[in-house]
Amino acid sequence: MKFAFIIDPLSKLNPSHDTSVALMEAAQALGHDVWITQAQKLTVVNNQAWANLEKVQLTPAELVEGRWVVSERWYAISDTVSLPLEDMDAVFMRTDPPVTIPYLYATYILDYINPKKTQVINTPTGLRRANEKMYALQFKEVIPETIVSQDKLTIQKFVEKQGAAVLKPLGGKAGEGILFLEAGDRNFNSLVEISTKWGYEPVMVQTYLPAAKEGDKRIILLNGDPIGAVNRIPTGSEFRGNMAVGGRVAATEITSQEQKICALLKPQLQQDGLYFVGIDVIGGYLTEVNVTSPTGIREIDQLNGTCLGKDVIAWVENPRNS
Ligand SMILES: Nc1ncnc2c1ncn2[C@@H]1O[C@H](COP(=O)(O)OP(=O)(O)O)[C@@H](O)[C@H]1O
Ligand SMILES: [Mg+2]
Questions:
Q1: Distance from the CA of 272 to the center of ligand 1, in angstroms?
Q2: d(Cα 66, Cα 64) in Å, to the nearest integer?
Q3: pLDDT digits (tens, 9 = 90+) for 136-169
Q4: What CATH number should be reported for the domain whose range is 2-125?
Q5: CATH topology of domain 145-208
């Protein structure tokens, strides 16, 4: 089969951390052709989505004494060719957030792929439907108390009621712009003004979950079913657990409460064509549904000796097996 991955420039990816690399390696290992392109290399010609593609040959990372070891030249790419994306069997849209206007435009281009010929993961409709922070709100029985607002007074009242809260920009990732807010903080007004761009942009404000100290669990869902998880534990004086800000990764289990959360999400994720997703769970509460380029596979494989990438590719080969 032929797989295309819409990703940020390969040279910017970290092969020992990025899930896109794990998926590409798995596709190659299972005998498929792997092509790459970027969101800004897509076009519509004669009502068909085309891309400037490069074929990739990867030297897979290897686990040596529990650590990923990567060759200095871990990839080789062919000359660029222009092809209809329907020549591919599957297209993974894995451009990193933020979801910008060009990102959204790329999803509109991906609408011009016939889903009967080529599976797009995640579907362009699903990517447009799901804001990574706000998608969770619809599952109200499993989320912490949360508001979304750009209004300082509304935010202030909420934080006073909660005592402590976490403010999140709606388009952020990897802990970017996440703030700890406390009633009476001398910087309170200024923090809210900066985050909301002076009342112009809504942000999420969520009750602070003390369980965050024990970790922010990433669970990978394939077609709505959990296939693996990793815990990320804040270190030192940092309250955020994200790997990008130094969170320590640790092996973990999926609890029955987390199974319940996954089961609750499954029908909606399937309906929205959100086949490959990473949810974040803190203390049994759902806090985020990552759909653009969820990560975690490398860390889970490293800790558990799994190869989740192969599970994902095998599902694409035969979706009904899941
Ligand atoms: N409600 C919360 N209570 C305590 N800590 C939180 C809460 N929500 C998020 N955090 C912390 O902030 C980090 C980032 O939050 P998250 O919502 O996952 O956004 P992103 O990962 O996109 O930056 C988490 O890893 C966690 O450590
Ligand atoms: Mg997160």
A1: 24
A2: 5
A3: 999 999 999 999 999 999 999 999 999 999 999 9
A4: 3.40.50.20
A5: Dna Ligase; domain 1 (3.30.1490)
